[in-house]
Records
---
Amino acid sequence: ILALIVSCAEKSSYYRNIVLTKCADRPSLCAFFKAIQQDDCADEKEIEILKGKSEPLILELGLLIEVLACKYDMGEVIYRLGLSISKLRKEVEAEAQNDRLYRPLLLLVENAVLVVKIKQESPAALQHALDNFVEENGRLNSDTALRCYHNGECLSRQMNYEDSLRYHYEALDIRLKLYGHNLDIADNYYQIGYIQYFKNDYESALKSFKKALVIRQNLHGKIHPVRDVFRNCHEMIGTTEYYLKEYDSAVHWHQLSLDISVALYEKEHPVVADSYFSIAKCQCEMQDYDSALESCQHALDIRLKLFEQECVFTSNSYDQMEFIRTNLKKVCESSLELQSKNSLSYFKKKKIILRNFSQINPNFLGE
């Protein structure tokens, strides 16, 4: 993972050598890793080794890379991976009855490749394809809703938020008429909230995120073994309330997200650092710089351990730390200045009182 995301060529090469060494006795993983590098890093013979589908870790690695590709906008990486693996489609389909291990990874990558391909599709082309599908299959069916949903996601990636929102509302309307409240409805509300958030319509976004959370809680219960189904909602509610300047409430939601993340992934994980970073931002706005400094330090420690120095997230934590310390210094200086002024004012007042009293009682100062 570090070999894929580290920008420094020297460090990337260092991590790549570690991967190749560790994978020396795992030909599937070795070829898999090389296949997602630049085209000249893997030859046809090595890619053929991918046909050995008995390596369980290959699916786990694929899932991790797909998540990273989404988080760090590494569409080209997943696209190269898909081109290599998609060649095995017919063989996998033929052998799926005997060995299903490879099929989930294949479908996952092909879906990612499809997303990369349609990312540049025009709104007109997407609408034309949808119209043809509706004409053949009708509007009120789950596949039509799914196509509307994917169109919305595609246009959202193109930052065409108006058309994206229109498709998500269309998918929501179909699904509500077909099913009532279910997880798909929750996902629709979440995506609608996400688009409203990027349109700076924070009030509407907050309502949408909370609707998504309520539906998920009603379906899963408030205590769920895989509580990650709630974490994203908590995080986005907290972030939205931050921009609405509801800082106390924002801290509450980010803390819920943090608690879930620690329970799921333990403390040394990127999303845990993200939560600490968000909490520190809120505490800065509340001018609680001591708490902000502590939260920021937690985020920085985790990011240094995971990403070392050369990472934009680590850099962001350093910038935040400097901002907090600068403001904390100003607060301390202001407090000392105020104390000094108050002390000076006290002595001046005392001097005036003593002078006035001495005029009444000349023997007072002598005493």
---
Amino acid sequence: MGYNLGTEELSNKSSGLWRALLAEFVGIFILNFFACAACTHANGDKTLISLAFGLSVFMVVMSIGHISGGHINPAVTAGMLAAGKVSVIRALLYVVAQCAGAVAATTTLDVLIPKSYHNGLGNTGLKDGVTDLQGLGFEFFLGFVLVLCVFGVCDDNKPDSRFVAPLAIGLTVSLGHLGVVEYTGSSMNPARSFGTAFVTDSWAHHWIYWAGPILGGVVAALLYTQLFKAPTVSDASERYRTTADDKEMRRLDGKHEMV
């Protein structure tokens, strides 16, 4: 792990920082717009809500993952920072862009959807009877499972996992909503909750939706990088695998006579 402040990224055009910030803004705008819109007409259908959030994340990571990493979530950014994969400056600016995009999306919904259909615009809150500590626990594990998945599918030593990364991350978001949306609204994402809280002026228990996912994300990041990271594949193993694959292809093509 290597940690750095990242001040050079502010002036270095090759860092792609400003392009990445725009991608994070657009990405979470799409997430909040479509997923929170689904919440306004779900009528208690938790499967619909779960799919809306999961599919939105799937689409966004597929679209902008190559630009910014497709964080669209301060918990993911915090995990990346804890693992030394992003600089402090980049992490802070990512969170600002994520929050701004979430506010912009929910504001757009506020304008487009008639007031009688708002239904809270997807605002997250604790279920009656759920204590602050219980809510914090739920959100901790939501952040944990999401960031654990992100690190697992983005492991440099598991290149094949990258092909399914967007789908795996999107399904993990759906899993989190299917599991505990009833109790906390399954934020998993501090910026997503911030956007609706800001527009609806609903700040009850809001700190839980920052502390829980971020703490869970940091723990998952450190756990994966220290204990779960895949072993480095040796050059010899790579050469053997390539040779074996070539032999198999020649056999399939009928160009290699089998003895």
---
Amino acid sequence: MSRRLPPLNAVRAFDAAARHLSFTKAADELHVTQAAVSHQIKALEEWLGLPLFRRMNRALALTEAGQSYVPSVREALDTLSQATERLIRNDSAGPLTISAMPSFASKWLVPRLMRFQKRYPDMDVRVQSTSQIVDFARQDVDLAIRFGSGHWPDLQVERLLTEDIFPVSHPSLLKNANPLTCPEDLRHHTLLHDDYNISWAVWCRAAGIEGVDVERGLRFDDSSFTLQAAMSGHGIALARGVLVADDIAAGRLVRLFDVHLPGSLAYYVAAPPHYFTRPKVKAFRDWLFEEAGKTP
């Protein structure tokens, strides 16, 4: 059903002027000029086809039509204001849903998440692990953490973590029958491949070594699987520093050699711009960057 409604700004101007019986005080309340209020009132009167105020020297009074209009206008504006506040509260309440790549969620986010829960014990967090780009218009997601170039149209994007890339292995491989003492020793070991990482061919060129079959070995489509294989002693992985910082610190993996490559991509937080004003999103975003600052 089509509704015949007057312009909202004109109605707000009328409400303020009717309460103050002054265009000047109404303008102060609405943070506009007195001329703007006068123009809005005149536009509303023309839309209604009725005068709402009697303009006298240094005085302003409501007409009979204006007096009868006031209660309904105030009730309507109060209802709209209350509905808006409820919507904003509901938008800020409820669980916080984070979308992150499986590897980042398991290797970096989840191990740190308890610190956020301790700080905000009343906030429920849901982590969705997926490599797909979030459709914020259709999916119930508050914030996405993505790995890439940072170019996602219509989203506010902030770089969270950069990285470098280097080989890692289980500590036991340093002392086995073919110890890893220099990059050339890779030819005696299984290479672990990650579809989301720089290839072994690129790393070997940077290291200046030849004679390593960079196509052989195990291949995975998720970085967390690649790193788990390395921690199980199944071979050598090219790792993104962000994902292995905790494992290296705990001794589950060791960093090999002195050759590392800067990553061309990075981890970003992304969401529609107005999402970042939500208290729960702002709290999580600020915590993420605090944690990122602690990452080696």
---
Amino acid sequence: MIEATALTKVYGAEPAVDGVTFSIQRGEIVGFLGPNGAGKTTTMRMLTGYLPPTAGAATVAGHDVVSGSLEVRKRVGYLPESTPLYPDMSVLEYLNFIGSLRGLSGQSLRAGVERAIESCDLGRVLGKDIGELSKGFRQRVGIAQAIVHDPDLLILDEPTSGLDPSQVVEVRALVSALGKEKTVILSTHILSEVQAVSSRVIIISSGRIVADGTMEDLRRRHAGPGGLKVTVKADESAVRRKITEVPGVSAVRTRLEDGLVRAEVDAAEDLRERVFRLAVSEGWTMLELSQTAPSLEEIFLKLTGGVS
């Protein structure tokens, strides 16, 4: 569905997007994740044909985003971060207007508008002016205008920005439902957004892709050393000293809490068996022994240089 090769956009002497290469297959829901200013929106604008690349190339459904820009736009539905809504229009008037701009007329226009209304659950607000709607409903209208022409690809740029928690849940559910029928790119700086709806994540930082894969792929490839949590009844200094001597341990932090020694152990491999055997040989009463791994938030910060 999408092929991007060395895609680059330079403003002045500064590259906003620097040699980005990736492919997205039909039917995927892909999170395009990165901190603010990483190049997400610029990449989305190039993929939709709204912004020409400085170098490199991209195709959507086999059409080049520059030489075949009009064909690309027919196949793409785009929700920019600042949704282009007309507050004095009613919801129905606006969707008919957008559908006509998309080249729909007659029965195809009526069918497209009805499908968008049903998909985005807008039936109860059709006669209302857009300016009277809540932010959540305005965002639904924005998504409806992006799908009124039944595109193959849906690109959503920060679709839950500014929404309250209940509205966020509603929009995520809508995106998940649309993803059953369309290829979806969800551009965001919010990790939980990607976790909630995406089957794959591409992480961009300073204009370059730093990771690409499923959530589990990210954990396997970028998590780095894991560790252990250990809780025992024993002397704290002895626990710290003995665990430090276990081969493979890089650091041990202990604290005494309610008469129990709680230890956090950094290690590059699974040391549960060695630590268990140590506890048995030392006569410690073990109450907890579990393996830990860095959170996805920690992995994201590591890959993006700690930029939030």
